[in-house]
Amino acid sequence: MKKIIIIFIFFLYGCGYTSVYKDQINNNILITIVDMQGDNILNNSLKNQLTMASYEESVNIFNISLSSNYEKIIISKNTAGLATDYELKAIVNFDVSKNGINKKIILSQSLNIKNEGENFEQTNYENSIKRNFAISIKEELIPYLLNFDDN
Q: Are the beta carbons of 95 and 102 closer than 8 angstroms?
């Protein structure tokens, strides 16, 4: 058993593995969500992502109000008139303030998907996509915040 663990550790060391949260501690920012409007799943996922990206002891404090808009647009139908393909689109407006300076940042994500037919599975899949949108939007927002004074 010890040999398997040692081999596994060497494998991870040699394959270029790095922690997902490795660079987040270096952000040195504290994000406070003041207000949220729009899609609850997207907003809550964004709030969780931004909280994880925050460093509690930072002096770079950002107050953020966010407003999200999530759309599911039919992009094609079959001969019976039923939707077969959708475009999922999330647009998030951030009102960011730091030390009396206010800026607006608008970020968006979109993805085309096929209609899987079953409502429960389709809804779960779309909710998973919303959570992934939140991760991507957070990854786009952090560089804006790190260079806030330069923008």
A: yes
* CA distances (Å), origin 119, targets 82, 123, 129: 14, 6, 15
Q: Over the stretch 53-70, which tens digit does the pLDDT of each residue have?
A: 998 888 889 999 999 999
For the whole model, what pTM was predicted? Answer: 0.79
The Cα angle at residue 31 between residues 144 and 48, in degrees rounded to 5: 105
Strand partners, 114: 85
The DSSP code for 104 is E
Of 136, 141, 133, the residue nearest 42 (C-alpha)? 133
Strands 101-114 and 83-98: antiparallel
The answer to whether 8 and 96 have CB atoms below 8 angstroms apart is: no
Residue carrying the six token digits 């663990």: 5
Locate 63 and state its tokens.
Answer: 């107050």
